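Friendly challenge for the regulars: who can give me the structure tokens for this chain first? No prize, just bragging rights.
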Amino acid sequence: MALSKLTMKPFQNLSKSIKANNPFSIFTKNLCGFPLDSRNITNDLISIFTKQPFSPNNPELESLAPLLNTKVVETVLNGLKNWKIALHFFTWASNQGPYKHNVYAYNAMASILSRARQKASLRALSIDVVNSRCLMSPGALGFLIRCLGNAGLVVEANLLFDQVQKMGLCVPNSYSYTCLLEVLSKSSCIDLLEMRLKEMHDHGWGFDKYTLTPVLQVYCNMAEFDKALDVFNEIHDRGWVDEYVFSILVLAFSKWGKVDKACELIETMEEKNVRLNKKTFCSLIYGFVKESRVDKALHLFDKMKKSGFTPDISLYDVIIGGLCVNKDVKKALCLYSEMKGFKIQPDVKIVTKLISSFSKEEELTCFFEEMHEDMDPKASTLLYNSVLNSLVDNGSVHKAYHLLQAITIGNCIGDGDIGKLFRGKAMVPPNSTTFSIVINGLIKTGDLDLAVGLFREMARIGCKPDLLLYNNLIDGLCTSNRLQESCGLLQEMEESGIEPTSFTNNCIFGCLCRRHDISGALHLLKKMRIHGHMPWIKHSTSLVKELCKHGKEVEACKFLVNMAEEGFQPDIVAYSACLDGLIKIQEVDQALKLFQDICAQGYCPDVIAYNILIKGLCKTQRIAEAQNLLHEMEEKGLVPSAVTYNTLIDGLCKTDHLEEAMLFLSMMIEKEREPNVITYSTLINGLCNAGRPDDALVLWNEMGRKGCAPSSIAYMAFIHGLSNCGRPNEALVYLREMEEREMKPDTYVYVGLLSAFLVDSNQPLAFEILQEMVDKGKFPDLHDKNHISVRNAILKLSEDARTSSSIKNLLAKGSIPSASLSVTGIIDGVEPAI
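First reply, four minutes later:
Bragging rights claimed.
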């Protein structure tokens, strides 16, 4: 809303109420002037309600109930320290007729609940105030509104304001409206706040800075830059700008990233003797560092100290961090030294930032010398452990490694400044944690040699590794295929009395499996069984897959049998891998026998295992057996996947059982197994191979209608199928469509089209396809099975008057390899020998 259109009137006596030492004092009463018996009543009630356990049947309560009045209730509430007890008393008092709460009793209870952040109880209290038709002054209403706002109950505060007006319980004045505006400003309800501001103006209540300050705050919160500036200028023009108002706008500038504007505003206000408070200084410094304006942050930091404010550790942390990012180490160290002057102990975050920024050993040396002055060995170790941990977390693992070498007594690498500083000085006694931090960091970065070296150094100076460190190092070595060292560490563990865990043995088991060391893996399994450790499925499965991949299916099956003999039943995933291996070497019957054995052992094969067998049976054209497996799956409650159906459809198409294949397509749709591009491509290819191109076209169009986008494989199968069915013109249309979709056909697609056009006696289009093959680099070489077909096609084209000259041109340009085609005679008019 346009504030300039509203009439501004001075707000009478508001500053006194706002700046009072106790802002709630005008709405609550004290005991001064109370008759002696009233004091006794309040003391007795406080004593009864705070005594544990509380008894509601206390006879004293019955005698005190008739003596209740609003002053007594308000005073008792202010004397109770616990909000639950206060609410209990408040509820008890409300049930003691003829006593009735007045607004001051309600406000005393509201103040207690607001401080305790008891939203539910405070919400119920606001409803009770209205339902009780309690009359209230504008000041009392403002107080209650603020209590609700302080607890975040903005909607309830706004509703209460309207209800008391409509019911005639209060006539709000400018103070009541100002309190409501303050509450609305916390919720950033711009529209509602502007409406209330206009409503206040329409009622004839004037504005002052206490009215406009919450308006400025909400505009700043919502980044309404122009409106915020208008309000600030209004406050400024009337001479109402104070430190608080100034800070709101400065912080908003900083938040919006307008740090230069903030600086200009600071300079302008300083000329008018309006100074920043500490909170504003800190927020601005944070903003400057965030904007990478560390120079401005330092300038403001100095100004803050000159203004008499003492910086805290978080402010030093931010500025030192900014300086370290800018590699301004000298200034960062100066601030570090300055902290000691203010008796502020730097924490690990600051120390880590400084260490991370040092590029020279002499800088580290100076820093260490200063840091050690006031620290005992135990504190030094704790600090260094934290620093090492932070360096590792920040990716500075090698810096952490060299720092650890420096603080290891008499074992520094090289003769650098750090080594000279620490050699022979027991300043920082490292412990097992110190070494573990760096070793684990080195393991993660793959620096295993350094990690092993530190591990040995650790033992040399008497620091004992724990189970976790052993496990991490063994895991790292096993991952890098350093099996012998891993086994050596395992032996060390056992000799030192540390019991290897399942993780320890599985790390080595995994390494053995990756090395295809079957005997070693089985030997370890025996040991694991004794200790009650279960081998991880992923390792045994991986071994089986790798054995099958390298043609060792028999060994894979034997390994699974041996695992079972040791008492470790392999997972169905491992068995499935073995089944797949047997199928690939066409040992279908052996795969079926293994499958039956698995079922006999109580396993429930999953859909994947069934799919592997169905695929194997279909490949060997044992379709009936494959279909029996499908029925068996369904009987066991397994839901066949799209892969299951696609495999059977492919098998049926290849054995000329197209009608059955089409039935499976219908079955898929019926059982909500959405056919995919593979399903349609398989059927379309089968229909084309069976000489049914029209049916294939119908299915192709259906695939498009159902939103199943054809792949390049689908296109090629369809184009090649149409070509084989003597429909090259239609095939060419789909070839161009395929090319428009930026899909690249394989050579066999062009060869099929070329041959089809020749059969159709369409030599010009055949030559066009040949030219396209040449241009796109799809001409088959001598070893390609399509080579003979293309050679014969060129011979036919050379014999046709419409294309012979074009063929001769290609030969002359060398586009067609004449030697490989044995058609050089074409150029001289001699019939080539094919």
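Residues 377-393 form the longest helix (17 residues). Confidence is low (pLDDT under 50) at residues 1-36, 409-426, 823-834. Your move, everyone else.
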